[in-house]
Amino acid sequence: MLKKISAAVLAIVGAIAVGAVALHRHEPINALWIMTAAVCIYLLGYRFYAAWIAARVLSVDASRATPAERLNNGRDFVPTHRVIVFGHHFAAIAGPGPLVGPTLAAQFGYLPGTLWILVGAVLGGCVQDMIILLLSTRRDGRSLGQMARDELGPLGGFAALIGTLIIMIILSAVLGLVIVNVMKHSPWATSTVLATIPAALIVGLYLRLWRPGRVLEGSLLGVTLVLLALLAGGWVDHQPLLRPLFDYSAIALAGFVIAYGFCAAILPVWLLLAPRDYLSTFLKLGTVVLLTVAIVLTHPQIKMPAVTAFTDGTGPLFGGKVFPFVFITIACGAVSGFHALVASGTTPKLITNEADVRLVGYGSMALESFVAIMALIAATLLDPGVFFAINAGAGVVGASPAAAVHTISSWGYPVTVEQMQALANAMGERTLFARSGGAPSLAVGMASIFGSTFGRGLLALWYHFAIMFEAVFIMAVLDAGTRVGRFMLQDLLGHLWQPLGRTSWYPSVLLASALMVGAWGYFLYIGVIDPNGGVNILWPLFGISNQMLAGIALSVATGIIIKSGKARYALVTLVPLAWLALITTTAAWQKITSADSRIGLFAAADDLASKLASGALAPERAAVAPQLIFNQRLDAWITILLLTILWFVILDMARVCMRRLRGLPLRSSSEAPYQLSRLQGATAQAQP
Amino acid sequence: MRSVAHLAVRHAAALWSALRMACGDDAYERYCAHRAARHALEPALSRRAFYEDTQRRKWSGVSRCC
Question: Are residues B62 and A483, on separate chains, in Cβ contact within 8 Å?
Answer without folding.
Answer: no
